[in-house]
Amino acid sequence: MKKLLSVLLVFMLSLNLLPFFGQVVRAEEEALRGELTVQAEEAWLEYYEAAAQRIMDANPDAKITLIEVGSFDHLETLDNTDAGNPDVADVFAIPADRIYGLTNSEALGALDVEKIAEKVGGWEDFEAYNEGIGGNFKIGEEYFAFPFNIETLIVFVNTANAEANDIDIEDPVELTDVEDAATILLPFFDAWYGVAATNSAEIELLGREKEDDAEEWELFSHMTEDWEDLSEEKQAFFTALFDYWKLNFDANTTLFDPEAGWGYIDETFTSGNKGVFRLGGPWDTASISEQAGDGEDLAILPITNITINEKPLLHWQGGWGLTINSRIEGDDDKMALAEAMIAEIVNTDYAIDLFTATGKVLENVSVEVYTESDELSDVDKKVIAATLESYADAPARPLFNEWGRVWDTWKNGILSWNSVKPENPEEAYNELKASFDAMMETLATEE
Questions:
Q1: What CA–CA distance (Å, rounded) separates 8 from 331?
Q2: Where exactly does CATH 3.40.190.10 map onto the chain?
Q3: Quick one: which H or E segment has residue 395?
Q4: Per residue in 203-226, pLDDT tens?
Q5: Whole-prediction pTM value?
Q6: CATH topology for the 32-151+318-393 domain
């Protein structure tokens, strides 16, 4: 009898608690339904297909279709049409610097990133999430993408070429000490690589600032200062940059040629030649490994192992996000399915598979997960470790729309040196200054 009463008591208590726990269970087990399209690059397809299949296996009423297209081609379609175009996927990848432009054009929908982050895990708390790349996707009070991967530049080293040319790679290499133009291959004409140098000298190519009580941001650039007004450190930086260009110019290399420069870097870095150091990202590993004896002659170092005036190179804390098409907002089924697919793409249980398929490194996965994996090569492990270390030391990438003007402004200024043939650092700097003066004047007229 007492046993029966105990069973009845437990049953009655469970009925009283049913409204709360029942809601939780139903929320957790609520089946996903509806149809969703997801953009995926060709190399990503197998990984994405597996992620989509896991969701569909658990949710028979859900259908996920992949649209095979490159990320930038997909964004070009979106730019040239609108979010309603069926060729634009419901879920797609974007570089962090596109977040403002795409939200301004109302192409993106807002996400419940806190819910996704809790499901994915890896951050200490939501504050830590915001301090990472996730915070870059917040505009106002809403979030318009979820972190896909982090990216920054690292140093690739050809050890065979270093040994043959008696180059020490154990200690940081100083650009101003290099006597052979081929030793360090830095495509400074490209601002993506150039900022690794300007960041080291704390030079802001284009920044924003505002007073505490101001409503609008003010744009500024250190590149519009007169030579004599530059600090000694900044003058020393431009002197080093000029000397590096002159070293290549006198050696008749094609490094400072946007058409031939990349081929020159690849050829010179190949084992048996003189190239020892070059910059790249995790996505470059396969091609650069091939140049370095299929990885036999390859070492990987953090970007800080190259210095200019004894200041380490520093790239950006860049990265990509996964976002949703604004047209699915208001469709609860599509929204739930989209958030589930985003969470599954960056499911930390599959971090190794994600890297193998895409070269993408997750911010919220420890370096030990990668380096202790039996599935990754030693080269991959070193690339990931160097990426995470370089990323930790890097400044945040500027994301405001106006920064897009810097790419050609910097490039045109640097490339003018080949034709103008400046005779000293001040003349070289003035060519850059003229390019940035014109940019700032244009931006001022557009305000």
A1: 43
A2: 32-151+318-393, 154-315+400-446
A3: none
A4: 999 999 887 777 788 999 999 999
A5: 0.85
A6: D-Maltodextrin-Binding Protein; domain 2 (3.40.190)
